Amino acid sequence: MKMRKMNTTKKMYETGALAIVRADLDRACEIAEGLIKGNVPVMEMSYTFNTAGDVIKGLKEKYGDQLIVGAGTVLDAETARHAILNGAEFIIAPNFSKGVAEVCNRYQIPYAPGCTSLTEAIEGLSVGAAFIKAFPISDFYGPKLCKVFKTPIPDMPILASGGINLDNLPSWLENGADVCGFGSLLTKGTSDDIAANASKIRTIIDNFRK
Fold first, then answer.
1. Around 167, how many Cα atoms within 13 Å sit in the side-chain half-sphere?
2. pLDDT higher than 70, residue 171
3. pLDDT per residue over 78-102, tens digit each?
């Protein structure tokens, strides 16, 4: 429990990427194998999937500290608490909720609310958000949205997702994205396919940061 929020936030930043997963436990384990092998051991399990809590619990029991597993699409405090009690190590949402922020702070879990304006993003930071999620409007604005947020607040930690691929990842990083979420690139195909893509993503991020 010691320094839990800080340690998880640090690991997420150091990895720089995560997989956005909607799958049952068997498939989630196949994905996890690829992520661990490819050196991107961070997975967001979406709560649009009915058994997300069970999948998170199963993944944590199987992989322990090898894999950081969080919950996505967490719209309210009740869902946040459910996810955390099932072992979720971070909480991501397409919206900002003070109730979710309070639950996350209580359990020392990083929270990344989706914010659509600078005012909302600053409010999120004010109540302890670990990252500001540049989504869903990032789908419309693209990588430059990160710069829009970071120009007045250079230290705003940004988690971006939506349309990021191997070709445009450098542009997202140059514009200030700190963690990038990936769908099909890190969830489709065999464990080996996922490992290969994860490795390419990690190389791009590591080279950019050098």
1. 1
2. yes
3. 999 999 999 999 999 999 999 999 9
- Determine the residue type at 171: S
Residue whose tokens read 């049952």? 24
In terms of pTM, does the model score above 0.90? yes
Amino acid at 165: N
CA atoms of 23 and 88, how far apart (whole Å): 16
Token duo for residue 156:
């705003």
Question: DSSP characters for the chain?
Answer: -TTHHHHHHHHHHHH-EEEEE---HHHHHHHHHHHHHTT--EEEEETTSTTHHHHHHHHHHHHGGG-EEEEES--SHHHHHHHHHTT-S-EE-SS--HHHHHHHHHHT--EE-B-SSHHHHHHHHHTT-S-EEE-STHHHHTTHHHHHHHTT-TT--EEEESS--TTTHHHHHHTT-SEEEESGGGTSS-HHHHHHHHHHHHHHHHHHH-
- What's the chain's average pLDDT? 95
